[in-house]
Design goal:
Layout (H helix, E strand, L loop, with lengths): L1 H40 L23 H29 L6 H24 L3 H16 L7
Helix pairs in contact: 1-2, 1-4, 2-3, 3-4
């Protein structure tokens, strides 16, 4: 019985750590969505021109107000991407905890879809792409791989 208690304790610890990382990731994702709302309000959507993932053809562009807002949003998206990747790696490495790997990998899929939508948004002004880019982040956050307990 002590062996089973030790395993249960490890599973609970792993699940708690996953939950903390998932909630941190969800918090940063929410902040990214809010920051993303600032981009069109300030008219900064073309602050990086039509270049993606570069900004005005450079990794670190010269800054003006519009470029700073758009570039800041892109950097925040990179941070969220790394958090989602960390969540996926952690969940796969701790796959002995039931359901953890699936949650982490699904988060990676949701982030990959968001990246594709961001690329399409940069390339076209089609209303369907614009509307998708505005609603998808909210759906993605709502379906994020946060623990169900």
């Amino acid at each position: 019985m002590p062996e089973q208690e030790r395993l249960d304790s490890q599973v609970r610890k792993t699940a708690r750590r996953f939950a903390v990382l998932a909630f941190i990731t969800a918090g940063f994702t929410y902040a990214l969505i809010l920051f993303g709302g600032i981009v069109p309000i300030t008219g900064s959507g073309m602050g990086c021109g039509e270049d993606w993932p570069l900004c005005n053809g450079q990794i670190i562009p010269p800054m003006n107000f519009e470029t700073l807002i758009e570039y800041g949003h892109r950097l925040a998206a990179v941070l969220v991407g790394f958090l989602v990747l960390a969540l996926a790696v952690y969940s796969v490495r701790r796959r002995h905890t039931p359901g953890l790997a699936g949650r982490g990998i699904s988060g990676l899929g949701v982030a990959a879809a968001a990246l594709l939508i961001a690329e399409l948004r940069t390339l076209t002004e089609a209303p369907a792409v614009r509307d998708t880019s505005m609603t998808y982040p909210r759906w993605a956050l709502a379906s994020s791989p946060t623990p169900s307990w």
